[in-house]
Design brief:
Oligomer: single chain
Order of helices and strands: HHEHHEHEHEHEHEHEEHHHHEHEEEHHH
Structural class: alpha/beta
Strand content: 5-15%
Shape: globular
Helix content: 40-55%
Largest sheet: 7 strands, mixed
Length: 417
């Protein structure tokens, strides 16, 4: 396939563009490292974000199919002009009530929600302070707004305070659960810095809604911080198994956002059948708390078992469990070893991770059973001498930290990267 791609005529192409394309294929002559073998039915699959295993729930599918059959007046235009349609407005009000907020705005994707809120709140006079592990969409939103953007060390409230002291109050962007390494934001500490410095906090709850809280309301509401966190965003393509995003805030801000966010103004509307699907999904998520409880138990069992087998996954505090092999060649070796034994995860490399800190992300979900967890652990025991987790960056950093402080873990070791 690569040879055919390489042979495709490009026509009149700027030398700089051709060089960028060629350099990609030079870097990955045998294909990009994210491409492993195709999964088969017998594999234990941990590569998706359907944490509650409801993506094919017949109640949800039936609701979407009924909506498709009922409606012929699909509107193909900007979402700004469809915001007051009955179904969309009702869904937005349901999201707001669920999360303990005044208002919510339905967006075309989680990327659009993140990009839009940063573009609408930051600017040349309003700096953005972004956790170094936050999503690329946050950085892009700040860039579009031409805002000065400053990274702060991961989950490090002290470094955030230092950055704000240097550059002035602004917008602080974090994730409730970080999508690559699965650790949880110390929201109380980060929020305290925001309140001390007069800054405003944006929390991306994409991997927390549906998973955390009695009704899956996410970390902010679960911790009782809804009244103190001005902005929340989340993707609907994780536990809420759809295609879209949501911005949550005050009613005044929601109205402002609709007309000032370029991603809101210039993106096509979410379809009515998708809105119907989201309503049905929200009902399942809120009502079936046993899924969250079981997901938590499965995640803890896998984390504990991996630690016992010499895999340092101590950074994870959620259903996302990373195997951080480091350099891409080591991650490719790990990918192949897992897939050969019927375990399929997701490969994350730069720019989704820091360079030389690539990883395999294992996403635990409610559809797994005890036999699946046993199989994953058995495979990791079997391949341990082949993939050498004791040589991975997380393990080396953990040993170094233990030798100086007595604390083993990856989270602190990544903050200086």
């Amino acid at each position: 396939m690569l040879s055919r791609i390489g042979e495709q005529p490009l026509g009149a192409v700027l030398p700089s563009v051709r060089q960028r394309i060629d350099s990609h294929f030079e870097q990955y002559p045998n294909g990009h490292v994210v491409h492993g073998r195709a999964a088969v039915a017998s594999d234990v699959k941990l590569s998706g974000n359907d944490y509650l295993a409801i993506g094919n729930d017949p109640r949800i599918l039936r609701r979407q199919l009924d909506a498709l059959a009922e409606r012929s007046d699909v509107i193909f235009m900007s979402g700004v002009y469809t915001q007051y349609l009955g179904g969309q407005l009702r869904l937005e009000n349901e999201y707001a009530a669920w999360l303990g907020a005044e208002a919510a705005v339905l967006c075309q994707s989680g990327f659009a929600a993140n990009e839009g809120i940063m573009q609408a709140t930051t600017g040349p006079e309003t700096p953005a302070y972004i956790d170094m592990f936050a999503h690329a969409s946050v950085w892009q939103g700040a860039a579009i707004a031409e805002a000065p953007a400053y990274a702060f060390r991961h989950n490090d409230a002290g470094h955030l305070r230092h950055q704000i002291a240097k550059h002035g109050p602004g917008i602080v962007a974090v994730e409730a659960i970080y999508s690559t390494i699965g650790d949880v934001c110390p929201l109380h500490d980060i929020l305290a810095v925001c309140e001390e410095t007069g800054s405003m906090l944006v929390v991306d709850e994409s991997h927390a809604v549906g998973v955390i809280g009695a009704q899956g309301e996410g970390l902010v509401s679960h911790l009782g911080l809804a009244a103190r966190v001005p902005f929340r965003v989340f993707s609907l393509s994780k536990a809420l198994v759809g295609r879209g995003g949501v911005v949550v805030g005050s009613a005044r801000f929601a109205e402002y956002f609709r007309y000032e966010s370029t991603s809101s103004i210039f993106s096509s509307a979410v379809f009515a059948n998708e809105v119907a699907r989201f309503e049905a999904t929200l009902a399942v998520v809120r009502e079936e708390g046993y899924r969250r409880a079981r997901l938590s138990g499965l995640s803890e069992r896998l984390r504990t078992g991996l630690l016992q087998r010499g895999y340092d996954v101590s950074c994870s505090g959620s259903q996302i469990i990373p195997l951080i092999a480091g350099p891409e060649r080591e991650t490719a070796r790990l990918r192949d070893a897992l897939e050969t034994n019927g375990v399929v995860g997701s490969v994350f490399v730069a720019p989704a991770t820091p360079r030389n800190r690539s990883l395999i992300r294992l996403c635990v979900h409610h559809g797994l059973d005890d036999a699946d967890i046993d199989h994953i652990l058995d495979v990791c025991s079997k391949i341990r001498d082949q993939v050498r987790p004791d040589r991975w960056p997380a393990s080396r950093a953990g040993r170094a930290a233990a030798s100086t402080t007595g604390n083993v873990g990856m989270a602190s070791s990544t903050r200086g990267n």
